[in-house]
Each structure stands twice: as structure tokens, then as C-alpha cells.
Design brief:
The complex is a heterodimer of chains A (499) and B (339). Chain A is an alpha/beta fold and 499 residues long. Chain A folds into two domains: 9-242, 3-Layer(aba) Sandwich (Rossmann fold), CATH 3.40.50.300; 262-498, Rossmann fold. Chain A is 34% helix and 25% strand. Chain A has helices at 47-54, 77-82, 100-111, 119-132, 148-160, 178-193, 205-211, 234-242, 297-304, 327-332, 342-346, 353-357, 374-387, 404-416, 434-449, 461-467, 490-498; strands at residues 9-18, 21-31, 36-40, 62-67, 70-72, 85-88, 166-170, 197-202, 214-219, 222-228, 261-270, 274-282, 286-290, 312-317, 320-322, 335-338, 422-426, 453-457, 470-475, 478-484. The radius of gyration of chain A is 25 Å and the shape is globular. The model of chain A has no long low-confidence stretch (mean pLDDT 85). Chain B has 339 residues and is mainly alpha-helical. Chain B has a two-stranded antiparallel ribbon with strand order 1-2. In chain B, α3 (38-63) packs antiparallel against α11, α4 (71-89) packs across α11 (218-244) and α5 runs antiparallel to α11 (218-244). Classes of the chains: A alpha/beta (499), B mainly alpha (339).
Chain lengths: 499, 339
């Protein structure tokens, strides 16, 4: 596929530091027309900084960016756009209040330095790109009213409205379902045929190998691997990204069969969600619950935590039957919950890591006079910060500044500080890179070994296989199978999920 | 059901507003036979002119994602200063030049807002609260604090004050200044919908970071925006002097709430990115209708302030409901696809 044509983009020895920290240490990279080049790396490896340098948002300390053999010493965002570089950001950077057509055409109108805007020209420009890509989109709809997948398509169309030569896609598949990912790959291949150079930024290794011809791996701001995609296995890339061997082996503790039962769920049901769900959870056990999206797996967790209480059945926590009608009830019963959308449901984004950690356990720090025990709070925070290996300058940093993996650890810390008997996690590693994923699982193992009962709800089957004692498979609101020990096998789970 | 209904409601609840206005008019006509006359209508138009011009400025700022409380101070500063300077110069340069001087002053004051807000990226509410006080202080301390009565106003202003377009029996009249107000309103509407500058204001209000990323020069756009808003406020200020037949440096105080309420009622989002000129016109008319004529319904005039407050809360609530509906929608779509 790769033709030995002249590179359209050359990044040469780029160095970038933020307050003494090397974000990029002499990174070089080339992109030739018609290739899909994957940039892989963990959170914090410098991927985002490199994108910012290429798109002119950040100025490198030294090194140059050449586009079509033209060296730009002071690349501004407008220079980059005019030279044909387009970035599709993870958040898409669309205008929710404007129509799809206007979102797409805004870029060409700006590039042509128009003063007046004509609706028909905007519509025609947008329709041209949409037709070229063979898409079907409602161009009159406001972007706020569209699905995530459609928004991404609009971001792609916008990037192409000005005949982009280089298209950088930052984590494009995070919010997409499997079918949508396939459709996205179809579009990427079509762009490739048109001679567009695509830089695909991702940490999902199977996707990387499926779509790209070349792979460059960044670690700690340095290029550690670069070469033909066909010469790598996902294992090799994972190793390059993390700098160590990543184990995907199953690793579970041995449970005492006489151990105390922490949670007993009997005949739990909720109209429109799930019916007759019964299972138990032992101290020290990690229980996986999986199923397709919409199967009811998340609803079961939300019922146990009282977000959407069940309307039939019983929940027994540590031998005592509990009436769980609200989140308050379940917290009092000793249940902790880490929600799926941690950024909106689990954290105060503009508040410090420290305050987030103790947010749900403030009551326990009250002294006899009703004031907060500062000393005890400080030591708790310091303990959690170290134990969960949160990568941040200090615990006063705001959560918004953290990467996905670190934000997830803060949510974990928040619940661990309450010392719940049972911890329910919904998609604990969504959007988290391999290294952090492994560490989060290690933390869960450690908590379980201390006597906590852990329930993991996930569709990341390899993750469940490596960590769970038992796995329940939910289909159409019912538990259709329960696998334990030797029965646990990724392909078997996949088969039963789809039935 | 939602299709037709949504279209009638309008993108910014304009349809809803029309219904409310019609309901209020019907109620007032039923309550008092004196209400439904050309006289009342022209009085309503007359009292809406200054609020409308000020509201157009507020609309622009709200769309861009900010909030401005300094416009009233800019309006009276520019109007009073220009009238005073014309009087001191001793020669009347004519109405157009008075407007031009005032709008230049307004633009300059707007630039102060723009520089602080755009360059230093400070919250607009706090900045304009600050500049509002500064503008008022400078006006009283350095320009003047003396009330200029009708007899002392420049001849061109006095002439404009008495210019009627249409006279009706019973002393009612349609004021001549409605023409420039209408022209300004149409120009602002065209600017918002048909110029790249206007669309950029919407884009910045929708997502400032995204605007920067597609290559909109955010700082420059915001500066020009505040310059324009300052000039608009000054236009409103001179209009206020003409219609009120006096120049009082202490006047126009307290119109901020009514103006912002009218714009928000007209469907502009306090979170930025949404709003329209037709909506704003309707919002201003509704607030003026309530302010002028609540007495006809037997409501004591002391309750007018409360009524405006209630309207503002209603307007914001309608928006908040719409916003939460919009937020939920995409998630549902996603689940359908997957299932």
C-alpha cells in the first residue's frame, strides 16, 4: 500500500517542555500521502502534545515541522489549516448550536476569508463532502441533537471540506460501537485511496493493526518503536507502550469456600430492565457481569446501588436484608459504586484530587465538636494518593487536568476511602490505557484480598477473564449463564453473550 | 406531534412568545376598553425603542457566551458626554454628528470591555460590573453631573424630540426615531445571520475552544463585538435623550435587569450560542407591555418589578428544560443502534 512518495508531513527533532518537564524529547516522524500511520502511546506519552505541535496550537522549543517540504518556523493554527492539516479532536470540537451544514462549511468560509455567508453556498459545500463520502446525514439538524457517531462523521466531513492533505484523528473510536468503528474504517480507507495521509491516534491495539500501515509508538515523550504495522503483534506494541511485559494471564486468588457471603440477591427485577436476577458474592471475590449494551447489565448494578431501585426481589448485605430505595440506602448498607461515565457522574472536575477523594466520606472525619479533623483527612489523602499511584504534581491538582486512567483512580480512591463492604464498578477501564488498566485491576485484586467483595460490570472480556472468579452473562434482562474457574474463556463468553 | 409543534414554537421559543403576548393583549383589552387603541400601541412602540436598541447589544454579548451589565452606563456616558461637548462647543453640528460622536465614545468604552475580556480571558459579568462602575464614576467626576433640561438641549436634539411620523386623534403619535431603530434592528439581524462575523459570534458562544481550533480569531472577534455593542449602547443613549427631552447623567440606571430579562425571554441562551433578533424584539415588547399596562389589569404598579422577575425566571426555566432534553437525546440514539 505504501508508495515511496515524498512525505507530506515531516516532524524533525521536535522538543517541547512544560515547566521543566519534557513532554517531547526530540521526536521525528514522517507521513506520506495515502498512508495510515498509527501513533500509539499511553496517556501522558506525548501524543497530544505532538498533535498540538503539528496543528500549530503549541510552539515547539526546538525542531521544525515541514509541510510539503516547506519548513514552518512559526506554525500558527491558521497556517496549519491553510497548509492542509486537519485534526479531528477526541471531543470533535463542533459547535453544538449550529447546523451540521454550517459546522462543516464554517472552515471553508473562513479559509476563503468571506465576509458574507450565503446559506445556499454553505449547504452546497457541506453536501458535496457528505456525498463524496457516500454518507447520509441530516445537514439541517443542530449538532447538539445528533448521535455521537454522526457528530464524528460531521467532524470528518468538516476536516475534508478544504481538501485536507493530512488528517489527524485523535482517539476516534472511543465513543463508537463496533458497527460504527467498521464504518469509520471504511471511510478511512476511502480517504487513503484519495491520497490523504491519515494519522490515527489510538491505544486500542487490535484497531491499530487492523487499519494502519505504519506504527509509531511514543513513550515518555520519545519514539520507542517505528515501522511497518505488519511486523508488529499487539503484544509487541503493548510492550513498547508500557515498557514492560503486559500479562494477559488469568490471575485470581483462591477463595475460602466457607468464607462469608457479603451479598445475596434474590429474584431481583425491574420493569423494562431485568427480571429474576439472583446471585451471591463472597468476601474476597471478584464477580464479573457482562452482556451486550442494552442487555440490562448496567441496570442491575444501578438497582443494587439504588440509582434506579428494583421493584421486586430482595438484597441481603452481610446477612442482613436491606431495603434499597435510594443511593443513601445502599451507601449506608456498605455498597460503593463507580459509575460508567466517571467524568460526569463520579467526579467534581474543577475541584482538587484531594477534595474529590474525601467527598463521599466527609461524615467519618467529623470530630466530636462537629468540625472536620484536618490531620486525619490529610493522612488519608496522602495514603490514597500513594497507594493508587496517581500521576499528578500533587493532590491539590484539579481533576480536569488528569488523564482518563488517573481520573478513574481518583474515583476509586473516593470509594475506597469509605471502606465499603461491596464495591460495584461499571466499566472501570473504559477509555483507560493498557498500563493503567492493569494497575486498576491490580488495585481491585488487592482490595478483594483484604476481604472486600467486588463486582465488575464490563464488556471488555479479556479484562474480565484475567481478573474475575466468576462471570455472569446477562441477555435480555436475565442471567443466562454463570461461568467459573476453568469454564472462563473469552470465546465462550462471546458466544453466550450473543445468543 | 413534536414536528409541527416544534416549528411553531420556533428555534428560540419565538412562537411561544407570540402566544403569550397575544394572551396578555387579549386580557388587557378585556380588562380595559382604553387599551386596544392606536394610542396605546404607539406609546408601546415609543417606550420599546430605547430598550430594544440596548437589548440588541445584550443579545450579541449573550450569543457570544458572555453577559454585559455595563451597557446602560456606556449609553448614558456617551449620550451625556456628546451632548455636553456639543453645548460647550457652542455650535450645533446636527443630529447625525451628535450620533456619530456618541457612538465613537461608546465604541471606545466598548473597546475597554473588549480588551479586558478578550485579552485576559476574564469572566464578562465581573469585568462589566467593574467597568460599569468606572464609567459611571468617570462620567460624574469628569464630564459632569448637571441635569440638562429640554430648554438647554442642542436645537437638533430638540427638533428630533418633536418629530412625529404619524399623529392620531387623542394626542397619540408614532415617533420619527422608529425609522433609524428599525434600520439598526434589521442590520443587526442581517449581521448575525448573513455575515461570517455574525456566525463566528454564534460559534464562539457555542464552543470557544472549537472556534479557536477551526481558525476563528477569537480575540479579534470578541474585541470588535464589544466595540459594536458599545456603539449600539451609545445609539440607545442618544435616543433616550431625544425621547426623554433631557440629558440626566443619573438616568438609565436600573434598566440592566429589564433588558437582560427581555433578551432571555426572547430565547437567547444565558450559556451562549443561541438567540435571535425577532425573539429579542418580542421579548422587549412583552416586558414593556407588562411594565406599561399591568395597571390596566388591576395589578398595583409596585408589582411590575416582581412581574418582570417572574418573566425572567420563566424564560430561563423554559430554556433549561429544553437544554436537558437535548442532552439526553444522543444517549438514547446510541443505545438503539447497539441493541
Amino acid at each position: 500500500m505504501t508508495t515511496p512518495s515524498a512525505p507530506v508531513l515531516e516532524v524533525i527533532d521536535v522538543v517541547k517542555t512544560y515547566g521543566g518537564v519534557h513532554a517531547l524529547k526530540s521526536v521525528s516522524l514522517t507521513l506520506v500521502p495515502g498512508e495510515v500511520h498509527c501513533l500509539a502511546g499511553e496517556n501522558g506519552s506525548g501524543k497530544s502534545t505532538l498533535i498540538k505541535v503539528i496543528s500549530g496550537v503549541e510552539k515547539p522549543d526546538s525542531g521544525t515541522v515541514a509541510i510539503d517540504a516547506k519548513i514552518h518556523s512559526h506554525l500558527t493554527p491558521n497556517d496549519a489549516i491553510r497548509s492542509g492539516i486537519q485534526v479531528i479532536y477526541q471531543d470533535f470540537s463542533l459547535f453544538p448550536n449550529l447546523s451540521a451544514a454550517e459546522n462543516i462549511a464554517m472552515l471553508s468560509e473562513l479559509a476563503q476569508r468571506r465576509t458574507l455567508v450565503s446559506r445556499s453556498r454553505v449547504r452546497a459545500a457541506a453536501a458535496r463532502v457528505v456525498d463524496e463520502l457516500g454518507l447520509r446525514l441530516d445537514l439541517e439538524a443542530d449538532v447538539a441533537d445528533l448521535s455521537v457517531a454522526d457528530r464524528q462523521l460531521i467532524a470528518i466531513c468538516r476536516a475534508l471540506v478544504n481538501d485536507a492533505k493530512v488528517l489527524i484523528m485523535d482517539e476516534p473510536t472511543t465513543a463508537l460501537t463496533h458497527t460504527e468503528v467498521d464504518r469509520l474504517f471504511g471511510i478511512v480507507r476511502r480517504l487513503q485511496e484519495r491520497g490523504v495521509a491519515v494519522m490515527f491516534v489510538s491505544h486500542k491495539l487490535n484497531e491499530v493493526l487492523q487499519i494502519s500501515q505504519r506504527v509509531t509508538v511514543l513513550r515518555n515523550g520519545e519514539v520507542v518503536e517505528s515501522g511497518q504495522a505488519s511486523s508488529y503483534t499487539s503484544r509487541a506494541i503493548a510492550k513498547a507502550m508500557t515498557g514492560r511485559e503486559v500479562s494477559e494471564r488469568r490471575q485470581v486468588s483462591v477463595l475460602d469456600p466457607q468464607g462469608p457471603v457479603l451479598l445475596q440477591v434474590e429474584g431481583l427485577g425491574r420493569a423494562g430492565g431485568f427480571t429474576d436476577v439472583s446471585f451471591s458474592l463472597q468476601a474476597g471475590e471478584i464477580l464479573g457481569i457482562t452482556g451486550l449494551l442494552g442487555s440490562g447489565r448496567a441496570e442491575i448494578a444501578e438497582a443494587i446501588f439504588g440509582i434506579h431501585p428494583a421493584d421486586s426481589g430482595t438484597i441481603t448485605v452481610a446477612g442482613k436484608q436491606r431495603e434499597i430505595r435510594s443511593i443513601r440506602d445502599s451507601v449506608r448498607a456498605g455498597i460503593g459504586y463507580v459509575p460508567e461515565d466517571r467524568l460526569t457522574q463520579g467526579l467534581f472536575l474543577d475541584v482538587s484530587i484531594a477534595d474529590n477523594m474525601i467527598a463521599s466520606s466527609l461524615d467519618s472525619y467529623r470530630t466530636r465538636t462537629g468540625l472536620l479533623d484536618r490531620g486525619r483527612i490529610r493522612s488519608s489523602i496522602a495514603g490514597l494518593f500513594d497507594r493508587l499511584r496517581i500521576q499528578a504534581p500533587n493532590s491539590a491538582a484539579v481533576v480536569r487536568s488528569l488523564s482518563g486512567g488517573n481520573a478513574q483512580r481518583v474515583v476509586l480512591a473516593k470509594w475506597l476511602d469509605r471502606r465499603p463492604t461491596i464495591l460495584v464498578l461499571n466499566g472501570p477501564t473504559v477509555g483507560v490505557d493498557i498500563g493503567s488498566k492493569e494497575e486498576i485491576i491490580a488495585i481491585l485484586r488487592e482490595q478483594a484480598s483484604l476481604g472486600m467483595g467486588v463486582i465488575v460490570i464490563s464488556d471488555d472480556i479479556p479484562e474480565l477473564v484475567t481478573s474475575c472468579h466468576r462471570i455472569l452473562i446477562v441477555h435480555d434482562g436475565q442471567i443466562v449463564s454463570e461461568l467459573s474457574d476453568d469454564e472462563i474463556d473469552a470465546s465462550e463468553i462471546q458466544r453466550r453473550m450473543a445468543v | 406531534m413534536s414536528g409541527t409543534l416544534a416549528r411553531l414554537r420556533g428555534a428560540n421559543n419565538e412562537g411561544l412568545l407570540v402566544v403569550v403576548i397575544v394572551a396578555v393583549v387579549v386580557a388587557m383589552s378585556a380588562a380595559s376598553p382604553a387599551f386596544f387603541t392606536a394610542n396605546t400601541f404607539f406609546a408601546l412602540v415609543r417606550s420599546s425603542m430605547v430598550p430594544l436598541v440596548l437589548a440588541l447589544g445584550v443579545l450579541l454579548v449573550l450569543i457570544s457566551g458572555g453577559i454585559d451589565v455595563s451597557f446602560a452606563a456606556i449609553a448614558i456616558f456617551a449620550a451625556y458626554a456628546s451632548v455636553k461637548w456639543v453645548l460647550e462647543a457652542g455650535a450645533d453640528p446636527g443630529l447625525v454628528v451628535v450620533f456619530a460622536i456618541a457612538m465613537a465614545i461608546g465604541a471606545l468604552l466598548g473597546l475597554v470591555n473588549g480588551v479586558v475580556i478578550a485579552r485576559f480571558r476574564l469572566p464578562t459579568l465581573i469585568v462589566t460590573l467593574g467597568t460599569q462602575t468606572i464609567f459611571k464614576g468617570v462620567l460624574i467626576a469628569y464630564i459632569g453631573s448637571v441635569y440638562i433640561s429640554a430648554a438647554d438641549l442642542p436645537a437638533s436634539i430638540t427638533a428630533a424630540s418633536g418629530a412625529h411620523l404619524v399623529d392620531v386623534a387623542g394626542g397619540g403619535y408614532l415617533h420619527f426615531m422608529i425609522l433609524p431603530v428599525a434600520v439598526v434592528t434589521v442590520l443587526v439581524a442581517l449581521m448575525l445571520s448573513r455575515t461570517l462575523f455574525g456566525r463566528s459570534i454564534y460559534a464562539i458562544g457555542g464552543d470557544t475552544e472549537a472556534a479557536r481550533r477551526v481558525g476563528i480569531r477569537v480575540v479579534r472577534t470578541q474585541m470588535w463585538l464589544y466595540v459594536l455593542v458599545g456603539a449600539l449602547a451609545a445609539f440607545g443613549g442618544v435616543l433616550h435623550v431625544i425621547l426623554g427631552r433631557n440629558a440626566n447623567p443619573q438616568s438609565l440606571v436600573g434598566v440592566e435587569l429589564d433588558t437582560i430579562a427581555a433578551v432571555v425571554l426572547g430565547g437567547a441562551s444565558i450559556f451562549g450560542g443561541r438567540g435571535s433578533v425577532p425573539g429579542t424584539v418580542l421579548g422587549v415588547v412583552l416586558v414593556q407591555l407588562i411594565n406599561n399596562n399591568l395597571v390596566l389589569l388591576g395589578v398595583p404598579s409596585t408589582w411590575q418589578r416582581a412581574a418582570v422577575g417572574v418573566l425572567l425566571l420563566l424564560g430561563v426555566s423554559v430554556q433549561a428544560l429544553g437544554a436537558s432534553r437535548a442532552r439526553r437525546r444522543p444517549v438514547v440514539v446510541q443505545k438503539e443502534v447497539e441493541a
